[in-house]
Amino acid sequence: MIKKILYVLLGALVVVQFIRPERNVSAAAQPNHISNKYAIPENVKGILQNACYDCHSNNTAYPWYTNIQPLGFWIQHHVDEGKGEINFDEFLTYKPKKAHHKMEECIEMVKEKEMPLNSYTWIHGDARLTTEEQTAITDWASIVMKQIVADSSAAQ
Question: Where are the beta strands (DSSP E) in the chain?
């Protein structure tokens, strides 16, 4: 009986290897990227690319192990959740109130060391933020928040 169960599980594991989640990959220009309206200093741009964009943009760099299921599904779920929280490639589509709130959340998550996720930094050690990088991100997000408020006030 146990052998049959193991064979069924092994068979299911083999079959699931042929089922792939849709990839979050876009080489196209991103007209709604946050940088098209709000300046991003070079150091912050590097931090965002290194520690944020895999889950918070329209272009994820997938490592080899995402081809192993169900790990690939789990990682894609994280990417989908991340894009749902904030997508820097779609940032300019947000209404001012939402955009302001997303920057506020960005500051909070970085200060509380909740972002990037531990499960991401285990594999991507270079994505661990130093104190200086945390400060750079939060300072930049504060500036963007002020610009959003100024833009909203000017539009009224």
Answer: none
Q: Which of 58, 68, 70, 60 is nearest to 28 (CA)?
A: 58
User: Which residue, chain included where needed, has tokens 């920057």?
Assistant: 103
> 90: which 2 tokens?
């779609």
Task: Work out whether the CA dihedral 129, 127, 102, 92 comes out positive or negative.
Answer: positive
Q: What pLDDT shows up at residue 14? A: 65
Domain count, the chain: 1
Q: Which residues contact 113 (CB under 8 A, 6 or more apart)?
A: 129, 134
User: 132 is in which domain, residue-wise?
Assistant: 2-155
Whole-prediction pTM: 0.83
Average pLDDT, the chain: 87
- pLDDT, one tens digit per residue, over 63-75 is 887 778 887 888 8
